[in-house]
Every structure is written in structure tokens, then in C-alpha cells.
Amino acid sequence: MNHYELLFILPGTLTESEVVPLVDKIKEVVTELEGTNVTVRDLGKNRLAYPIRHIRYGYFHLCRFEAEADKIKAIRNKIGLMSEPLRALIQSFDPEKQKEIKLEHFTTAEKAQAPRPEEQPRKRGDVSLNTVPVTKKPKEVKEVVPKKKVSLEEIDKQLDEILGGDMSEV
């Protein structure tokens, strides 16, 4: 038996109470096709990188399970036939080599507490672009000239001069 991860995204247009049965439905698909030790982790609702089916937000879930390699194609096909998930991705997972993944881009609280790159102290010999302080050139101030009101007669005169006054050939 191999270890696998299934990351799936459900539409953000659903309510929290509508998401739970869909997660259970996907969990049943995995267990139905001989997946064992199925665990599902809710990663929360987040903005998608690009709209999928005109939907901009989604509920992210990570499902880890064990299954035979020949059953993965059947699981992928059965989840692909479901209309609810926006995306689903299955990949192999080695629990011995790969420790618990930090999903920093899913949690906004950790992002808010992390120092910004320009606020981090520089270390001697550090040439990373992320730690170089950002300096901006001050903008030049332009003098504001009040606009002069122009009458329609003046505009007509200037148009006649530009067009050469001869409109018979037009």
C-alpha cells in the first residue's frame, strides 16, 4: 500500500453546512475504492489564484489515505465525474521523508504576524533581494497651470485653419 494526498477545492459559493456532506461524499469515494486510513483536513476558505467556472473563492481540503497504485486512476476518474469539486489533485506522499507540511499560504493569521522583507535585519554577507531595504525616489512636483476656458467659436476657427478652410473636396 502506498500513501497518497488528495487536494480538492469546493466552490466558495456553498455555505459551510453544504460543504460537509460533499467532503463526506469524497471521503466515501476514496474508501469505496479500497482506500484505507482516510483523514481529511480542512484548510479553510481562500481566494483562488484565478476564477474557475466564474468562482473566485473555494474551500480547500487535504485528504491523506493509503491505497494500491492501480486504484488511484479509478479514484481520480470518479472524483473527476463529480460536478461539485472545482479542482482535485492526487499525488504520492511519503510520511517518513515528508514531515507535516506548513501551509503558510493558507493561513492569513501567520502572514499578518510575519515581518515584511524590508523590515528584516540584514546579516553580514547577505545579498538576498528579499532583505534589501526598499528605497523610493521622491516624485517631482509639477506646477499646476489653471485651464483657460475656450468658446465654441474659437474651436471652429482653429478647425478651419487646420483643415485649410476648403471643405468642397471632402
Question: Could you walk me through the main structural features you see in this protein, from its secondary elements to its overall organization?
Answer:
It is a single chain. With 170 residues, the protein is an alpha+beta fold. It has a domain at 2-111: Alpha-Beta Plaits, CATH 3.30.70. It contains four helices and four strands; from the N terminus they run E-H-E-E-H-E-H-H. Strands 2-3-1-4 form a four-stranded antiparallel β-sheet, with helices on one face. Strand 2 and strand 3 (55-67) form a beta hairpin.
Notable characteristics:
four-stranded antiparallel β-sheet, alpha+beta, single chain, 170 residues, Alpha-Beta Plaits, 4 helices
The parts where pLDDT drops under 50 for at least 5 residues are none
Shape: elongated
CATH homologous superfamily classification of one domain? Ribosomal protein S6/Translation elongation factor EF1B
Text of the CATH class of one domain: Alpha Beta
| Rg, Å, rounded | 30 Å
- What is the share of helical residues? 25-40%
SSE pattern: EHEEHEHH
Task: Give the number of helices.
Answer: 4
Instruction: Tell me the β content.
Output: 25-35%
Class computed from helices, strands and strand pairing? alpha+beta
How many β-strand runs? 4
